[in-house]
Amino acid sequence: MLYNSVVALLRNLRVTLEMIKWEHSIFALPFALCGAMLAANGLPAGQQLLWISVAMVTARSAAMAFNRLADASIDAANPRTQTRALPTGTLTPGFVATFVVVSCALFVLAASRLTRLALLLSPVALAVVMLYSYTKRFTRWSHLVLGLALGIAPSAAWIAVRGSLDLRILLLTGAVTFWVGGFDVLYACQDYEFDRQAGLHSIPRYLGIRRALWIARLFHVVMLVLLMGLVAAFGLGKLAVAGVIVVALLLAYEHSLVSPNNLSKLNAAFFTMNGVISVVFFIFIAGDLLLKR
What we know:
Layout: H1 2-20, H2 29-40, H3 46-70, H4 72-77, H5 85-88, H6 93-112, H7 116-135, H8 142-162, H9 170-188, H10 192-198, H11 203-233, H12 238-256, H13 266-292
């Protein structure tokens, strides 16, 4: 009996992790680590890196699982998402809700192991990352709310290291916000027809796919401007500048994969390239900071 319960728990946990695609925490984690390294002007303490990583993964896990709960009825109606775990009954809402609560608790625990300000702001951070789930019901700018949910990661990491906030790190928060907002606009193009029928709000629904692709490009141009501002604000060197240039080239390639008449490569653009972009940028920033020491 106990064995069967453990097996069922592990199966549900595996399905939940697959549902929230926890491995895609790599999108925001490198930017959080950039914030931590900028705060420390080099490598933070090992314990700080550990708890920042735990906080990032658990916050994203809580947010994604909460999103699946909030969108369960929408996912059931959307042909693209009907096979997800909640619409098919593979997972129960109760189990997913428990996963959200446990993830939130682990996030608060991680914040408590960092700085007092990180702990005090942990409920605010959770509120921000979960708010996104409802924004597409009332605003076409939900893409930027999602961007902010990931964008607060570097500022949160700065607070985790310093125990205070430096306005300069908000340049990285802004860059991540527009980066994520841009690729979420791309991703939302897949649901253009469904969003119109369901009364959901998105930039593609209001502007059409062609103009939405231009909005995504504009968001990514803003991201690059903010990254250059970050380099200047922190007095970073040529390696950091090279990192921004590489990110620009990768973004250009990402946008070349999609067109108004062909969205077939959108998954590759969304998942693979964005993971590469965040890791590459971190490597260049980390390298620049470490070589200056």
